[in-house]
Protein: Oxidoreductase
Amino acid sequence: MKKVIIITGASSGIGKQTALQLIKEGHIVYGAARRLDKMQELATAGGHILEMDVTNHEQVKSAIQLVKDEQKRIDVLINNAGFAIWGAVEDTSYEEARRQFEVNIFGLAEVTKAVLPTMRNQKSGTIINVSSIGGKIYSPLGAWYHATKHALEGWSDCLRLEVQQFGIDVVIVEPGAIKTEFGDVLNENFASSEKGSYAGLAKTMKKVTENAYDEGNYSPPDVIANTISKAIKAAEPKTRYAAGKMAAQTLFFRRYFPDRMFDKTIMRMVKNMEKKS
Structure:
């Protein structure tokens, strides 16, 4: 069944790959992102593109209104826009931390709030929030990023209970290691801790991150695109889908082993990387 779909963060990586796949499957897809020039491939493939910064509330409202005016309905919202800052809590400015939450939580919430009246009125809809296995685990220097993803997990659970009475499903997708621009951008954000008390840890964690994106240590973004497509097609989608390199194994380990054991495992990985560097 052809559906009207909006996907944020559609200018690269998971967002672009998912948009292209859903267009190919015959859906009416609106890709939204700040960089229109990076979404021309979607337009060429038969999709629609929207300039949208999720932190600009007026821009969000006007973009969603455009879709409603043109299609008269919205069947699926895929909240995919997001980024990560990396650094010690002590070194990270509140300005940087607020920006992390503005994009990953408050911007996502604004887009969701903009589509909910339409979905309620039509008594159907699916909201897919792209989280991360980082919403269930943690790592040194990732406090603010992990905080947003942990928050997104709980936020989505609450939303699911609120909107199920209107026939709306809320789904969380938890990618593992996926080859996108995410890793490159993440590594640029170690700068705040590359000098001072946490310099050694920052140097090591940067190498850990780089190693995660070496050939064979990640999955391509179409793994997540396939997972999202599966959720859209399902008559009763799962509340959570984990996919991508090491996603299932990591979540299993986190679920069944106590915090201290998980702490030791994470820091053992860090120490092993220190020895190799």
About this structure: The domain at 4-272 is CATH 3.40.50.720 (Rossmann fold). The chain has one domain: 4-272. The first helix runs from residue 13 to 24.
